[in-house]
Amino acid sequence: MDRRAFLADSLGAAAAVRLPAHVRPLTPPGNSGAVGTTHLVELREGLRSLYHLDDAYGGTAVRSLAIRHLRRVRRVINTGKYPDTIGRQLQLLSGEIAGYCGWLHFDADDQDNARRYWGEALTTATVLRDADLEIRVFSQMSLQATYEGRARDGLDLARAAQERATSLGSPVLQSISATRGTRALALMADGTRARRRLADAMRLLDRNGRGRPSPEWAAFHGPTELEYAQGLLYAELGNHQAATQFLRAALAHQESSYGRNRALYGLTLVRSLIDAGEVDEGAARAVEALEHLEEVESGRVMRRLAEVAGALRHVDAVSARDAAEQLTQYSKAKGAA
After folding, report:
1. Between the N and C ends of the chain, which has fewer C-beta atoms within 10 Å?
2. Average pLDDT score, the chain
3. What superfamily does domain 130-215 belong to in CATH?
4. Of all residues in the chain, what percent carry a pLDDT higher than 70?
């Protein structure tokens, strides 16, 4: 296969997203030769670029690119010539991208399509018997379950992920699964077990480097993620003063490259400040947050923005009413754009 031809189709054809310079174009293979390691590396680099875009801008902005990349990989699988070893890697990559499409649709708040893509990814994981892909999908489906208020399902999915992560010997993947379980238990109002599970997540993260290396997709998980999880835990248990302390720390420690998470953390902090009675600070931070949302396209973030606006409207204070009005106008303008 002509590598230059393979790189001719643009991964960044969607102009709505600012693609970084290192994203290079890709095309489906022709019939002129075999798919080799170089082509596989290029396809993986395309997925890696999508990770960076999602971190910065959110899933709504990136999902169409991911769907195109998934179709591209599937065309390579169905039309290319390659040995079995390359074929397995292509199939695994297809499953990883399908799972990632599930995540992006989840972040865009398109839950039915998220389930569909995760189902495709799990099918691939089962056929290939790939535990890492199973862990990834189960942990993300656990997050979705708690997001939708299905705490028991969230706990069961987190357990499934943790069982596989334990067998795989990856402390970081075990920590991610334990963190998902923490959220589910908090929603079930089981504070004792939720605290214990979060302590497990912290202990496991401290063991990073001693077991199996964590995969690239797990790079988001670290002390900042656990600070955020602890803030959510305290908020769910009604200790809003403690929640604000951990949410402040999570926001302060979150890297600037994670634009979507910074937006989500900031709005979650605002909600806890309101619940803790710190209305003026919450209102001020809510208005400040609008400046950081311009380039973020995430259904989850916009839902959190609507929740914060609703909470502010129910507070009898001038600062709260003014902030609620600004948030509402911003949401309308962004929705019309």
Report:
1. C
2. 89
3. Tetratricopeptide repeat domain (1.25.40.10)
4. 89
